[in-house]
Backbone:
C-alpha cells in the first residue's frame, strides 16, 4: 500500500507551496516598493525551492516528472513574457527590470544546472541536439568528401 | 486596496480549491474508492503523520489563541505560551505504545482501542461526544473567527456567512471524496502553508508594528500603572467562586489557573482526533521527531515568540488578537495579507477536516453499525459516513452563525473533556494497577466535574432551574483541573477496592503484550530522575513556581533584564528546558524512540455470522423510547423550574 510516487508529490507540492508562495509575495513586494533587496529575497526563496526539489528527487531516486517540467517551462515562459511586456510598455523602472532580469537569470541558470547535473555536459547537449535518422553515415560521407 | 484584496483573495481561493480537488481525486484513486477510505490502509508515511499531527495539534487555535490570551490577560497566560511543550508531552507518553498495541490488535482508532481493553460502551459513547465537540464546536469557533476576518479584509464585500459557507463547502468536499488519505495529503500542504504564513505574519508584525524594542518600551511604560497586572501571576490560588460569581483578587491568572489550563491543553493530544493520524501511519518511527522537533521545538517557538508578540501588540492597543491581526493585515500588501489568511484557513481546515472525519467515523462505524446495523456493507458504511460528514459540517456552520455563544461554550468544553481520557489511557498503556472499572468510573467522575465547572454545563443546569453557588472555574481552577482531580481520586479509590477483579481476555492479552515490548530498558535511577525532572519542570514552568517568574528577570531598579516582561522571559527559558525534557523522555527514556519491531497482527478467528437484525431492531426501538422519555422529562423540568 506504500506509494512513494504520491509521497514524493506531496513533498514537492508542500515545498513549492511554502517557499513558492512566499517568494512570489516577496518578489511582488520588491517590485511594488521598489526594493531590490526584497525582490532578491524572493528570488533566493525560488532557488531554495529548486534545491529542495532536487534533494527530494535525489531521496526518491527520480527526476522531474513530465508534468513538473511542463509546468516549470510554462511558468518560465509566462514570467519572461510578463517581463518583456512590462518593459515594452514602460511599466517597469530600472530597479524592477533588474529584479525581473535576476529572476529570469536564476530560472535559466537553474534550468541549465538541472540539465547538466541530470544528464552531464555532453548528455545535456544531446538532449536537444537531435540528429536526423541515418545522419551519422551521411555526415561521414560528407566528411569524406 | 480593497479591490486588489478581493482580486488576490479570488486568485488564492481558486488555487486552493484546485489543490484540494486534485489531492481529493488522487486520494480517491489510491483508496480504490471505499476500500481504504477510513484509515488510508494504515499507509500514511510516518514523517507525514508526524507533521500533520503536529499541524493539527496547533492548527490556527494555539497560534491565535495564545495571542488572544496574552492580549486579554497579559503574560500570565503561561499555559498558552507553553502550548508547544504541553502538546508534545502526552504524545511522548502514549503514542508509541498506542501504535504498537493498535498494530497488534488490528484497530485504527482510539475508541476501538479503549473498547477492546475496557469493554465499556459508556467510554465509547463519551469518546464519540468528545469527537463531535471537536468537529462541530471547536472547529466551528475557528471557522467563525476566520470567516469574520476574511469579511473584514474585504471591507464587507464578502459577508462572513458567505466566507464560512465557501470554506465549509471546500472542507467537506475533499473529506467526502478522499477520506483520511485526502486529509493527510492535503494536511501536509496545509501544515507547511500554516508555517509559512505564520512566519510571514511574524515579518508583517515586525514591519508594521514598529521596532520590537520600542514595542517593549511601550509595554514597560504601562507596567507601572493600570497594566501592572499584565505582567504577573496573581498568587498561587484564589478562593473565589469563579467567573460570573464575584471579583477576582487581582486578575484570574493565578498559578492554579495556569496549571489547570495546562491540563486542558494536554487534552488536545489525548483526543480521538489526534490519535487517528497516529494510528493511520504505517509505523511509529515519526513520533519522537514529530513531537520533539516539530511540535515542541518549531511550533513551540512560533507560539511563544509570535503568539507573544501579536498578543503584546493587541495588549497595547487594548483589542483582541483577531482585531489586532486584522489591523496588521490591513497595513500589509494584499498578497502578504491574503497569503497569511490562507495559511490560517489551511490550519483551520487541517484540524476541522480530521475532526469531521473522526467524528463521523465514530458515530457510524463505532456506534451505529455495531449497535443497530451490523450487516451494513463497507460501501454503505463509507457512504453513510460521508453523509454524516456533510451533516456535521453544515451543523457547525449553522451554529457558528446562529448560536455563536452556545458554540463557543461547547467548544471550550472539548479540551477539558478530552483531558479526562488521560485516566483510561494511562490505565491502558502504563499502569496495570488501574483496573478497568476504576478507569471508567474515574472518567465518569471527571466529565461530571468538568460539566459542573465549565460554562456549558452551568448554562444547561441554569436552564433546567438549578443555579449552582459557584461560577465558571471556581477557585481559579480550570474545569480540566477539577475534572482530573476527581478523575484521579476515583481511580485511586475504585482501583483499591476492585484490584482482585479479573480482566477480560483481550485486556489480559494487551497487558502481556505491553509488558513484553515495553519492559524497562533504562536503569531505575534514570527512571526516578526522569519523573523528578518532569515534576520539577511542571512545578516551575506551569505550576506554582511560575510566581517566581514575576520578578526573576527584573533588576534592582525594577527594569526588565532582557527588555521583555519577566514572565515572558521565564516562559521562554522553560520552553527551552521543556524542549530538552521532551527530547529526554522521547529519545533517552525511549518512550517514543524510533523502533520497528516485527509486530504481527493477531490472527482473527472466523466467527459464525448470526442474523442479529431482530435484536438490533429491538435495541433501536428501546433507544427511541428512551430518547423520547428523556426529552419529555427535560421539557417537564424546564417547564417546572427553569427556562
Residues:
Amino acid at each position: 500500500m506504500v506509494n512513494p510516487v504520491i509521497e514524493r508529490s506531496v513533498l514537492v507540492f508542500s515545498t513549492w507551496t511554502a517557499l513558492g508562495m512566499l517568494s512570489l509575495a516577496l518578489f511582488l513586494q520588491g517590485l511594488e516598493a521598489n526594493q531590490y533587496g526584497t525582490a532578491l529575497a524572493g528570488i533566493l526563496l525560488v532557488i531554495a525551492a529548486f534545491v529542495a526539489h532536487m534533494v527530494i528527487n535525489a531521496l526518491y531516486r527520480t527526476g522531474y516528472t513530465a508534468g513538473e517540467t511542463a509546468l516549470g517551462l510554462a511558468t518560465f515562459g509566462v514570467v519572461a513574457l510578463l517581463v518583456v511586456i512590462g518593459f515594452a510598455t514602460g511599466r517597469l523602472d530600472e530597479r524592477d527590470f533588474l529584479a525581473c532580469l535576476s529572476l529570469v537569470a536564476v530560472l535559466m541558470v537553474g534550468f541549465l544546472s538541472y540539465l547538466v547535473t541530470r544528464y552531464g555536459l555532453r548528455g545535456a547537449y544531446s538532449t536537444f541536439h537531435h540528429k536526423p535518422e541515418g545522419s551519422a553515415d551521411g555526415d561521414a560521407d560528407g566528411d569524406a568528401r | 486596496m480593497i479591490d486588489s484584496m478581493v482580486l488576490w483573495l479570488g486568485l488564492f481561493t481558486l488555487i486552493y480549491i484546485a489543490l484540494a480537488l486534485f489531492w481529493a481525486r488522487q486520494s480517491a484513486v489510491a483508496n480504490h474508492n471505499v476500500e481504504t477510505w477510513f484509515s488510508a490502509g494504515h499507509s500514511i508515511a510516518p514523517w507525514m503523520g508526524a507533521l500533520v499531527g503536529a499541524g493539527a495539534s496547533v492548527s490556527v487555535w494555539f497560534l491565535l489563541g495564545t495571542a488572544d490570551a496574552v492580549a486579554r490577560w497579559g503574560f500570565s497566560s503561561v499555559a498558552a505560551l507553553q502550548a508547544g511543550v504541553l502538546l508534545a508531552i502526552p504524545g511522548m507518553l502514549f503514542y508509541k505504545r498506542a501504535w504498537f498495541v493498535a498494530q497488534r490488535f488490528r484497530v485504527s482508532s482510539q475508541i476501538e482501542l479503549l473498547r477492546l481493553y475496557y469493554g465499556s460502551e459508556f467510554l465509547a459513547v463519551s469518546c464519540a461526544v468528545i469527537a463531535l465537540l471537536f468537529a462541530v464546536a471547536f472547529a466551528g469557533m475557528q471557522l467563525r473567527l476566520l470567516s469574520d476576518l476574511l469579511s473584514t479584509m474585504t471591507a464587507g464585500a464578502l459577508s462572513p456567512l458567505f466566507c464560512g459557507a465557501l470554506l465549509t463547502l471546500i472542507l467537506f468536499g475533499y473529506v467526502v471524496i478522499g477520506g483520511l488519505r485526502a486529509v493527510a495529503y492535503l494536511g501536509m500542504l496545509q501544515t507547511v502553508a500554516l508555517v509559512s504564513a505564520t512566519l510571514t505574519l511574524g515579518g508583517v508584525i515586525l514591519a508594521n508594528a514598529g521596532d520590537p524594542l520600542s514595542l517593549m518600551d511601550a509595554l514597560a511604560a504601562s507596567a507601572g500603572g493600570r497594566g501592572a497586572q499584565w505582567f504577573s501571576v496573581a498568587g498561587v490560588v484564589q478562593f473565589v467562586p469563579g467567573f460570573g460569581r464575584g471579583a477576582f483578587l487581582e486578575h484570574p491568572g493565578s498559578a492554579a489557573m495556569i496549571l489547570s489550563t495546562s491540563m486542558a491543553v494536554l487534552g488536545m493530544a489525548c483526543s480521538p482526533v489526534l490519535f487517528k493520524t497516529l494510528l493511520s501511519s504505517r509505523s511509529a518511527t515519526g513520533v519522537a521527531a514529530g513531537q520533539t522537533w516539530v511540535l515542541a521545538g518549531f511550533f513551540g517557538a512560533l507560539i511563544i515568540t509570535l503568539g507573544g508578540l501579536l498578543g503584546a501588540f493587541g495588549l497595547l492597543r487594548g483589542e483582541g488578537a483577531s482585531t489586532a491581526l486584522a489591523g496588521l493585515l490591513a497595513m500589509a500588501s494584499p498578497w502578504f495579507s491574503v497569503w497569511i489568511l490562507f495559511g490560517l484557513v489551511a490550519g483551520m481546515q487541517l484540524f476541522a477536516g480530521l475532526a469531521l472525519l473522526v467524528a463521523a467515523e465514530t458515530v457510524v462505524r463505532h456506534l451505529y453499525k455495531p449497535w443497530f446495523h451490523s450487516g451494513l456493507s463497507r460501501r454503505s458504511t463509507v457512504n453513510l459516513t460521508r453523509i454524516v460528514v456533510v451533516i456535521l459540517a453544515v451543523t457547525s456552520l449553522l451554529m457558528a452563525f446562529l448560536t455563536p455563544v452556545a458554540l463557543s461554550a461547547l467548544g471550550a468544553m472539548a479540551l477539558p473533556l478530552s483531558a479526562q481520557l488521560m485516566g483510561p489511557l494511562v490505565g491502558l498503556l502504563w499502569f496495570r494497577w488501574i483496573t478497568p472499572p476504576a478507569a471508567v468510573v474515574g472518567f465518569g467522575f471527571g466529565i461530571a466535574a468538568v460539566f459542573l465547572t465549565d460554562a456549558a454545563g452551568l448554562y444547561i443546569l441554569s436552564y433546567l432551574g438549578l443555579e449552582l453557588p459557584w461560577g465558571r472555574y471556581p477557585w481559579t481552577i480550570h474545569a480540566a483541573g477539577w475534572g482530573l482531580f476527581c478523575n484521579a481520586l476515583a481511580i485511586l479509590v475504585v482501583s483499591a477496592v476492585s484490584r482482585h477483579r479479573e480482566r477480560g481476555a483481550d485486556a489480559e492479552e494487551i497487558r502481556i503484550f505491553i509488558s513484553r515490548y515495553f519492559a524497562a530498558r533504562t536503569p531505575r535511577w534514570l527512571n526516578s530522575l526522569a519523573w523528578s525532572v518532569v515534576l520539577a519542570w511542571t512545578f516551575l514552568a506551569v505550576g506554582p513556581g511560575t510566581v517566581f517568574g514575576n520578578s526573576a528577570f527584573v533588576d534592582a531598579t525594577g527594569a526588565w533584564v532582557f527588555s521583555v516582561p519577566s514572565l515572558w522571559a521565564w516562559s521562554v527559558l522553560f520552553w527551552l528546558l521543556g524542549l530538552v525534557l521532551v527530547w529526554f523522555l522521547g529519545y533517552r527514556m525511549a518512550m517514543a524512540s524510533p523502533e520497528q519491531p516485527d509486530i504481527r497482527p493477531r490472527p482473527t478467528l472466523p466467527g459464525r455470522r448470526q442474523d442479529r437484525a431482530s435484536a438490533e431492531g429491538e435495541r433501536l426501538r428501546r433507544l427511541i423510547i428512551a430518547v423520547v422519555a428523556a426529552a419529555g422529562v427535560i421539557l417537564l423540568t424546564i417547564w417546572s423550574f427553569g427556562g
